[in-house]
Amino acid sequence: MTQVHQLPLVGLLLCLLIPSHLCKICEISEEKKSYLNPLLRTMNNLKYTNGVEAANVLLSLRLAGFCSQDLEQKLIQKVKDYVIKKISDLSSGQLAWSIMALGACKTPNEMFIYEYNMVHVLENKFQEEIEHMDHALFVSSKYYNETECQKTLQTVLKEISQGAFNIPTAAAQILPALVGKTYLDVNKDSPCVYSSAVNISIPVSGSVTPATSPSLIKVHYSVKINKTYSTNVTVPSGSVFLDVMEEAQKQNKTIFGFTMKESSWGPYITSVQGIEANNNDRTYWEILNRGISLSQGVGSYIVHNGDYLEIRWSKY
Ligand SMILES: *[C@@H]1O[C@H](CO)[C@@H](O)[C@H](O)[C@H]1NC(C)=O
Ligand SMILES: *[C@@H]1O[C@H](CO)[C@@H](O)[C@H](O)[C@H]1NC(C)=O
Ligand SMILES: *[C@@H]1O[C@H](CO)[C@@H](O)[C@H](O)[C@H]1NC(C)=O
Ligand SMILES: *[C@@H]1O[C@H](CO)[C@@H](O)[C@H](O)[C@H]1NC(C)=O
Ligand SMILES: *[C@@H]1O[C@H](CO)[C@@H](O)[C@H](O)[C@H]1NC(C)=O
Fold first, then answer.
1. Following CA atoms 242, 243, 247, 250 in sequence, which dihedral angle do they give, to the nearest 10 degrees?
2. How much is the pLDDT for 109?
3. SS3 content of the chain, % helix, strand, coil (to 5)
4. With the C-alpha atoms ordered 24, 93, 262, 79, is the resulting torsion angle positive or negative?
5. 3 near 132, Cβ under 8 Å?
6. Which end of the chain is less enclosed by CB atoms within 10 A, N or C?
7. What ligand 2 atom has the least distance to the C-alpha of 34?
């Protein structure tokens, strides 16, 4: 995964940081709410969701009023584990997101925020980083034309149906805008709202499959550098690209060995066969199926039987 497919989202994401009258996507009407299902499904797929992503998803679902109690519990646990483990390493943004997510509505979790002194830690970090924020707010207001909010909504809904925003963080960031909320609407004193208004039927996926043994699927997998190295891999249905890579790595660590990093956009591949992607050389590890570049990351692309997967040393 690279910055490449994040770029078109940037304008919309900034929308969530500024007062809504400056940046208006029209609120989606009640009868069109089923258009949001792909976003909700993406956010429900927690298998490789890390702490930052969990915070994004939790805040978004709470703000939009689409959280179920069960999902909320799982997300809260992920965010707490993450904060406990990493509080000193988090950026102000990551920490702010965690605070907002945990405190977005009235629950016993507010205690957690104070126990860990999260707000104080945030103040210190924020001082160091504040210039960047100013810049972002300044840039955003010129992207939007109020009178065109319906057009923006149509565009966004079309993109959702085509599978854009199919990374949990992307889905989490667009959802509140579509129901007329921004992060300025976070109110720690309002009670948490639980909803089943929208049909959150989760696709069969590794994270939710019950104890019955999952069916297996077979995919072809190759690493392309200057030469192509291929193998066939069998994984449980519902597996994602990363599961295939791990399985191949077990077969032969020399040719399929890889390293990865966590980010708020999900895990991404840093090296394969010891060859590192490098911003200076504009190189990255591209993931493809049947020669077509995938817009999702290794942690979110759910593989299908017969997929012809490839990870390719590429330039952008
Ligand atoms: C917004 O868009 C409408 C229709 O495209 C156009 O007539 C109007 O001038 C635009 N307003 C601004 C402030 O750009
Ligand atoms: C929810 O989705 C499932 C599967 O797509 C469908 O069978 C069911 O009727 C839907 N329920 C509602 C309330 O729309
Ligand atoms: C691929 O081949 C080119 C030209 O032969 C060479 O310069 C480059 O270092 C090779 N790349 C890798 C990753 O082996
Ligand atoms: C993978 O399986 C296909 C048929 O299922 C076979 O043609 C191909 O040779 C296999 N590839 C490898 C690398 O084992
Ligand atoms: C891994 O692949 C390389 C190159 O094909 C081969 O030389 C090596 O023996 C393989 N290792 C294992 C453990 O199969």
1. 60
2. 61
3. 50, 15, 35
4. negative
5. no
6. C
7. 14
Residue 268 marked ligand-binding: yes
**pLDDT (0 to 100) of residue 306:** 96
Which H, E and C letters describe 101-149, residue by residue? HHHCCECCCHHHHHHCCHHHHHHHHHHHHHHHHHHHHHHHHHHCCHHHH
The verdict on whether residue 173 carries a ligand-binding annotation is yes
What are the two backbone dihedrals, phi and then psi, of residue 302, each rounded to the nearest 5 degrees?
-85, 120
Alpha-carbon gap, residue 77 to 82, rounded angstroms: 8
Say yes or no: CB of residue 157 within 6 Å of ligand 5: no
Global pTM exceeds 0.70: no
Q: How many CB atoms lie within 10 A of CB 245?
A: 23
Rounded Cα gap, residues 14 and 23, in angstroms: 9
Give the model's pLDDT for residue 205: 41
Q: Give the dihedral of Cα atoms 258, 264, 265, 271; nearest 10 deg.
A: -20
pLDDT at 15: 52
CA distance 107 to 91: 25
Residues with Cβ within 8 Å of 158's Cβ and at least 6 positions away in sequence, in order, are: none
Which residue's CA is the nearest one to ligand 2's atom 9?
Answer: 199
> DSSP letters of 6-26?
GGGGHHHHHHTTS-GGGS-PP
Low-confidence ranges of the chain (pLDDT < 70): 1-25, 108-111, 114-115, 125-148, 188, 196-214
Q: Tokens 């208004």 sit at which residue?
A: 197
DSSP annotation of 35 reads: G
Question: Which tokens is 202 given?
Answer: 């989760």
Please indicate whether residue 34, judged by its CB atom, sits closer than 6 Å to ligand 2: no
Tell whether the torsion through CA atoms of 300, 301, 304 and 306 is positive or negative: negative
What is the per-residue pLDDT for 146?
55
Q: Which domains does the chain have, with CATH numbers?
A: 3-197 (1.50.10.20), 216-315 (2.170.130.30)
> Is any atom of ligand 1 closer than 6 Å to the C-beta of 148?
yes
Q: Tell me if 222 CB under 6 Å of ligand 4.
A: no
**Parallel/antiparallel/unpaired status of strands 308-315 and 216-224:** parallel
